[in-house]
């Protein structure tokens, strides 16, 4: 004790003398520097005598401030430039143009005005009156007159021919008047032939239709030769009105539709040469309007074989007219889509067809499939023949074809097609509205889309049927989801091209809306029908992510919300795996295992494809880390669960190391491998994986060391030579190699050293306590170890040994921080000895503890002095 006293006193005196000498040197140096920097007033440079006007008080400027000044002229230039920019901006402002709705109303008013003001108004009105008068006269004469019926009809026909000939003769003198006469003559001839055939039976059907066909061709030819849309419209209008004006209520629908078929062929013939939209619309409205009235009033199921062919022919004619309109439009409008014919024809024809075949088995399904195939074939034909010239029309036809092919499924399964067709028609209407910049139609399409979903919820959302996935609840919900997603895609493209469009800004809402519809409908079916619910959910989320990735990346859609959803597959699989583990203690039970394996492979493939997107490499580094960590965790839990249920008579150490085996193997593989993503992303990805897995193993180490007694049965317990300690040795050796390889990131290296040092310290203490447990029968519990004097004395000696070794090593290498850590540990031991170990007074353990600790501290004071700082630097590695 006396020797220690004199030793420490000598050391303190030396330190005090050294501090006093350093204080004196520093004070003299400080005074010398202040004297050398002071300037007398007469020695002050002129360039320092500068004032900066701030109010009225002059302020001296530092030289650095003078150098950083900006001349006033620069500020003036900035002001002038801003003024010029403002002036330029003001001059470039223009008044906004009128809206599309105002333009449409103005155009419509101008056309109505021109019809009643241009040309001879009395002639136009007179011809219309004459036409209706002839029709009424023929009908009255057929019922009341005593003049032979043949004479009456011949006279009417001759009158029509006279008007036609007069009009043709006057075509070069007064073309407008001549065209009106020709139109009236053609209308009278049409109505005369039809009345003679249908009302009186004066001519056989073959001759009647031959005459009607001849005059249809004649009127079309005259209209084309004279380039007169009005003549064609008058002639066709008279032809369509003829059966309505002379109807006797006989119900001969075959004759009526045969006649209309001839007129429609005439319209088709004109459309072959001219893009006269009013003529097309007249035929479309009359044909499908009259057919709809007949279906609602007179149709019976036994009429299907004779009525359905007419409907199909009408449908083919007007779908072809829609194509011809795009082909024959003026050059500046070439390829323009007539939305009424392109979308109205399949919409009305499909509705009528469904009404005709609703009583037949699978009639609606086969009709929808047939319409879909027709439009797909038509799309292929248009694309092969005309390519980009009719791209808009081909896309429209393709959309219609896909819709009908898709709708064939719920029709076959008695799905609720009204909701489905509303959702898809809303998507189709939106597509046309965006292409033609019709904002009000865009709002209507979005409203219809939401209305279809609400209609489905109100009527069919709970109809799960008796067959999984093939029932109204699922099929109807899927169609609502698909319609919403198609709508979202169109709105996304609109938002990209026109960021100011209020409609385009709703794309994210409809994307989320459609995605939620799809997932909820599928999950409800899984819950209702599928036993392996977690496995089915894994497949559902994986397939959804794959399809969205395929559309965005492989189909070059560049759909950012779809890519984000695909990226969320990894955390989604985490949730499903966690749910399965919480319910069953593991996730890879059969048959779920058959779902997890392809999902794991597909998720990696999805990430690989998404790399070609616009996201930074760091995002994918984290995602690949999450993918590998999830895969390792999933199989580690499975290995631990299967080992625990293997009913093997083994010690708890074997069970304790199961969760750490796969992560260690993965770490060794990652460190050496350059395969796949490891080769593409290199060192940054490897470091993220090693650090993340290292932290995971650190948590395992802490948990295992605190709870596992290390029983190695059937083997005896030996320190270091047992499963837990051997795994720790491999773990620490691996990270020692990793630390040695870190050269470019000192901060990371220091953090890893601290982590490994903490784990090593906890492990060595646990190894000591496990040894006490096995050899001295001290229970391996925290409270037992705290109350055991033997355990406390052993810990004190161990901490002292570790602290002394750390300080000794730090003194030899100049590692100041490590020396401080070791000294702190020794200090903790001293505090512990005073507060805890003294309670075991009179025991052998207390004596040994104090002797050992004291001896080591005495020797340490000589062999391990604290490393000093050198010029403000120190070694921390």
What features would you describe in this structure?
With 877 residues, the chain is mainly alpha-helical. The chain is built from 33 helices and no strands. It has helices spanning 2-37, 63-67, 72-91, 100-117, 121-144, 149-169, 175-198, 205-225, 229-245, 253-273, 277-298, 304-328, 339-357, 363-386, 391-412, 417-435, 439-459, 472-497, 507-529, 533-554, 560-567, 569-584, 592-610, 617-644, 652-672, 677-681, 683-707, 723-741, 746-776, 782-787, 789-813, 816-835, 844-863. α5 (121-144) runs parallel beside α7 (175-198), α9 runs parallel beside α11 and α11 runs antiparallel to α12 (304-328). The longest helix is centred in the first third of the chain and has 36 residues, at 2-37. The two termini are 37 Å apart. The model is unreliable at 1-6, 38-98, 330-335 and 870-877 (pLDDT under 50).
